Amino acid sequence: MTDLLNLAPLTPMHQTVRRPLHTETTTSQALYLPVAPPTLGSAGAIIGRELYSGKAFIYCPFSAFGDGLPGGNMIVMGDTGRGKSSLTKTYAARQIRLGRKVVVLDTKEQKEREEGEWAALGRSLTGMAPVKFAPGGGPGASCINPMDPSISGKRQAELVRTIVELGLGKTLDEFAGSALRIAIRRAHHRADSLGRTPVLADVAAALRAPEESDAVAKQRTRDELLADGLEASYVLDRLCGSEQDSTGDLVGMLDGPTSLGVGLDTDMVVFDLTKVPSGGVAMTILVAVISVFLEEVWLRPLCECGTEPSQHERVVVDADSGAWEVGPNPATSCRRYSQRKRILIAEEAWHILGTPQLAALLEKFLKFARGLGLSCIFIVHHLSDIDDSPETQAALKMADTVVIYSMKKAEAEAAVARLGLPAWTADHIVRLRRGIALWVVGEVIYPAVQHLLVVAEQHLCFSSGSMTDVSTSYPDAA
């Protein structure tokens, strides 16, 4: 079983490559029901087939954008074992074949392999191990510094404040917020004088030792400035630990320089969060930091030819107004700048959508996804796992594609009511078989889309090893 999972199964290109499809008008009229939903075009990733019409089901938010699909965000839901992870894994692999870049926040552990269930797919596609995070660090563990130079100064200040507020469980008042901003600035000055990058411990130290000049500038005494930021310093100590205490929630994950192993240039980057306790403050803060890190580094403008917009020529499209667009790059023989498309996948996304602070933090991803060339995919079991906060409701409304696998009747009715779907869909969802889902793409409902896998993909999408007899699932295994 382990040997099978460590293979490079996507090597046989003929199993997943797109083949030309030839049809004639009369053939199409005979095969496709006139009452069937319209197709999403022939460009994109093959999902499978729409059972009621027999048509191939091809989906790509970047290809279908503007033609009935206002954006690329997606939410996938359904009971355990119905095919949610299989769909998103094969979809990600097939989109990478079309030139996309993918980042996965993997919180779903395979106990028998002691790693996340996306690890095998990531190694198969890129040859790289996942970026692992573990409380306390350890061999192979990674660290992201919220004060990394790749994050702009303003975003650093916002991120550190978010970390403190999440740790406190409340919003900082104006006095505490001002003290924190001063401490961040002082932490940078002191770290620069030592020739290194500042870390959160430097901010905590600066909060406990404010400068007299900073207090005067704010018309406060030094003791008053100390009191303003003292609680925030205690929170950072509790989260990041100290020389005397190494039990902080974020020790080994956010308390040091960014690990060299955290690279975002490959086609797929898997952040393995399976060792981080779900629902705790550590998971919430870690996802918040990763989100900002992705926004500042991974989502920077980049053409499909691999160059930045500044390396492309400007082409004037209106001489009267001077309007121009980004055009070709002779150095790479690129004819026109085309934004490299990206996909962000969050497994077990209830810990994101169910936390108002995280939902608000990711709102920028969702709201400006079109301008960023980004598609966000959230995988949950049921909408009842997510609260009904305004932030969560806003995130759900920005999901332009909804994929629903089979659910129990009560959960199906709750999901249909919350999403505003027709009443008949609740009974229909209950009767769906494994691997078949109801898709809502924009305003169009596809009642039964069967997801199809090729042999090369099957064991990569298998996530129930602990419940299944290996000899039954893999008859050729030893």
From TrEMBL:
This is ATP/GTP-binding protein. It comes from Streptomyces amakusaensis. Gene3D superfamilies: P-loop containing nucleotide triphosphate hydrolases. It comes from the Bacteria. InterPro entries: P-loop_NTPase (IPR027417), T4SS_component (IPR051162).
